Amino acid sequence: MSLGDDLAPHLPFLRRYARALTGSQSHGDNFVRTTLETIVDNPEEFPKDVDPRLGLYRTFHAIWSTANIEEDVDPAGNNEAESIAQARLSKITPLSRQALLLTSLEGFSNEDTAYLIDVPSDDVETLVNEAMGEIERQTRADVLIIEDEPIIAMDIETIVRDLGHNVTGVAVTRDEAVAQAHSQTPSLVLADIQLADDSSGIDAVKDILQDFKVPVIFITAFPERLLTGSRPEPTFLITKPFQRATVKAAISQALFFDAATVPA
């Protein structure tokens, strides 16, 4: 099997990570594209002594760590998320955010994360705790949950409240979600795809985004319906069954790029 075949299954997830890290699909994809070009141009330098996924993320991080983040701008001209990130980065180090995303969103162990960001493994947990603590202090949100499974909805609601956020409502259908969003404007939406009346959480989010600019996290058992590569993909996508730490990390990162809570 070729190196390309080994890396292909991991590319959608590297793109997800890059989007979460940069707050921009186009900006994140630029880093992924540069990573792949680097591997193609210098295949002999690709790490041979680790799992291909680790080698892919290691190459990505080698490029990310040498980039001038303040000058890298979304080529589409929309660098609002970048400016928001810079405001937050004045309060939290990028290394801590990387550790948080790699462990909680991407599921790497502390040892693998240490390898990827080139720090001692004993430092990873400290970096993650620093990131979570600082982001939670910076952000407070009104959260709309769109989920038709009562037990899952209750679990998500508990996670949201434990982080110090307010839950504006729990909707189980598209129409109910839109109505609740208009009744009390959310600053974050957590949405399933398949809802109680066979309506779509994707459609509910589209309706909401027509009237409100709000970050969205999809939590679904059907991630392949969103990771198609044929249309703009969600920055934050969590697969069921989920880990609580994953949801917490995604919420923190989504709010990290939210203009409503940028620190003064």
Automatic annotation (TrEMBL):
Q: Which UniProt keywords apply?
A: Phosphoprotein
Q: Would the keyword Membrane be found if you checked this record's keyword annotation?
A: no
> Residues bearing 4-aspartylphosphate?
D192
Please state every residue range assigned to the domain named Response regulatory.
Answer: 142-255
The organism's place on the tree of life at top rank: Bacteria
InterPro entries (alphabetical): Bact_response_regulator (IPR050595), PhyR_sigma2 (IPR053866), PhyR_sigma4 (IPR053867), Sig_resp-reg_PhyR (IPR014605), Sig_transdc_resp-reg_receiver (IPR001789)
What NCBIfam families does the database record attribute to this sequence? PRK09191.1
Question: What's the protein called, per UniProt?
Answer: Response regulator
Query: What is the protein's species of origin?
Result: Sphingomicrobium clamense
Q: What is the lineage of its organism?
A: Bacteria, Pseudomonadati, Pseudomonadota, Alphaproteobacteria, Sphingomonadales
